[in-house]
């Protein structure tokens, strides 16, 4: 597993539109891809929310993704006995800061993607034990989703079911006692219950994402049982093995049971990678990083051929980030800004990808060692635009103006986006020549209506950066970016 998070994450993501590299400006608008930005608990805190909203607005935010933890709003959530209440009635839940945030999104005319996830009420689990993620009851979840539909149906554009259901910090069991994947079938029941509940709650044709899978895992842990014993059952299930199990397909993507097809608006995945770089491809064929997205799209196509899902299901990369120190998978601050733009372009270049993302706004505290979240521990992430102390990283300045510089023969291909732009605009691309201490203007570029631009250059340089002045006079300047 690439990373573990807070055991009960509350994630907020922000959508934008992306552009292309090496495509004429007039053609860029044909690829309309969302980018989700995850601000974690910053936006659910009434104290921190005003500052975080102001930051996101300056970065060009137009939509939010919010992770809604069932446990956070359910009545008697820590009781082993289910209370006697109408679980389909939203008046019986305590929506709290979720309401406050979604009201802010409505005020700002931002769209909302709502992911409903664990932990769940204790009374809805099979073992009644913390961290309340073991075999949640499908019927209880269906009723809860009916309440969600009635409460938020008019305010939510897109739903997503569960966060990383192939990870033991969010759903159990992952593997059965014989070492074979168990979580895919548990998740299938939850997904079907959620879809049925949304329809029962008044949404005739709900737009729902499935998956939300973590990038790494095992197809089986049978060989680990002798050495790791019960701990072997707490590994992640590999994302493509999870996909096959959820859809009742064998290793050759052929039907292995009597399961019917599932309806979905898209497959959500967290395509984190390693410090090896954006183009890293894991040797395990059922793992999917940002550099191996074709594995996922090929798997979805095979599943469609087996009539398990609709054809041409799009991919939503709903969580992503590049780690910096002190994380053990860290790259330098400057590499974070460079790699993030490359990763974004990889996502854009795949026509099946409907969304990219950035996880976090501010770094988590360091937390415990890798694997701690399986036992309810805190694992910090350092993928933010700011350090835990609030200091801006280079990515804070580059994220609103992503810039990718790719070596192309003896020259370079440059691609970028002005996220806060609301229409065609002009920007300045600067270059630092070898041996020079300052930058000079390389080119003044006019973007298309969505803020995208690209061009090729033969000018040799060691660093490039972008400068943009907003219509209100705010000056934006990206961090120095090296060619890759």
Q: What would you say this structure looks like, in words?
A:
This protein is of the alpha/beta class. The protein has two domains: 12-396, Glycosidases (TIM Barrel); 406-477, Sandwich (Immunoglobulin-like), CATH 2.60.40. Helix content is 23%, strand content 18%. It has eleven helices and 16 strands. The protein has helices at residues 25-28, 49-59, 70-73, 96-107, 138-152, 183-200, 225-228, 239-246, 293-305, 333-349, 394-398, and strands at residues 12-14, 34-38, 63-69, 111-117, 158-161, 208-213, 266-269, 315-317, 353-359, 403-408, 411-417, 426-432, 440-446, 452-457, 463-469, 475-477. The strands form three sheets. A nine-stranded mixed β-sheet has the order 1-3-4-5-6-7-8-9-2. Strands 13-12-15-16 form a four-stranded antiparallel β-sheet, with no helix packed on it. A three-stranded antiparallel β-sheet has the order 10-11-14. It is globular. Residues 1-30 have low confidence and may be disordered.
Largest sheet: 9 strands, mixed
Structural class: alpha/beta
**Biggest sheet: strands side by side, in what order?**
1-3-4-5-6-7-8-9-2
Secondary structure: helix percent:
10-25%
Rg result:
22 Å
Shape: globular
Question: Would you identify the CATH H-level superfamily of the largest domain?
Answer: Glycosidases
